[in-house]
Amino acid sequence: MAYEARAVITNLAKQYTADMWAYGTSFQVMYFQISAGGHDPTDPTTALAPDPAATTMPGTVLFGPEVIDSVTWESIMCPKFNCVIEQGEYVGELSSVALVAKIVYDPARPAGAPASPGLGTEFLFALYNRPRLILTSTDGPTTFSLMPFF
């Protein structure tokens, strides 16, 4: 089954983007992870609004971080990160998919600049919440094609 959705970019990702513009620090969206914290526990058919201030995904990470399987392009300015859970790779409920980025370049900074996030730092880049989905050992592959939403 394939799901296409927009993922909300976190405030931290926006902060690191501004840092990139000012100082050249660069990051790459590299991983995804899932949890079951993205739905209303009293009504699992209702997704909770993603919190852009989040620095961790809602609930406990149940799968991942897993390398993103591929990137396709909706347009020249809109990548889609394709996150695949293979058949039997995960069994259980899920309702949140997170994209995780990593700082891959961190040049020297001028005096007085804010502190660097640090080379190798991983952070929550974007978050997609949905109604609860239960995967069984016979389901799959399950693909989430996530487009970051600015």
Description:
This protein has 150 residues and is mainly beta. The chain has one domain (2-149). The protein contains one helix and ten strands; from the N terminus they run βαβββββββββ. The chain has one helix spanning 11-23, and strands at 2-9, 26-35, 39-40, 43-47, 61-67, 70-75, 78-85, 92-105, 122-135, 142-149. The protein has an eight-stranded mixed beta sheet. A hairpin with a 2-residue loop joins strand 3 and strand 4. It is elongated and about 55 Å long. It starts with a strand and ends with a strand. The mean pLDDT is 95.
Question: Helices and strands in order, then pairings?
Answer:
Layout: E1 2-9, H1 11-23, E2 26-35, E3 39-40, E4 43-47, E5 61-67, E6 70-75, E7 78-85, E8 92-105, E9 122-135, E10 142-149
Key features?
mainly beta, eight-stranded mixed beta sheet, 1 helix, 10 strands, 55% strand
N-to-C CA distance: 26 Å
Structural class: mainly beta
Q: Roughly what percent helix? A: under 10%
Kindly state the mean pLDDT as a whole number? 95
Largest sheet: 8 strands, mixed
Order of helices and strands: EHEEEEEEEEE
Low-confidence parts lasting 5 or more residues at pLDDT below 50? none
C-alpha geometry: elongated
Indicate the proportion of strand residues: over 45%
| Order of the strands making up the biggest sheet | 5-2-8-9-1-10-7-6
Number-wise, the strands total: 10
Treating each run of at least 4 consecutive H or I residues as one helix, how many helices? Answer: 1
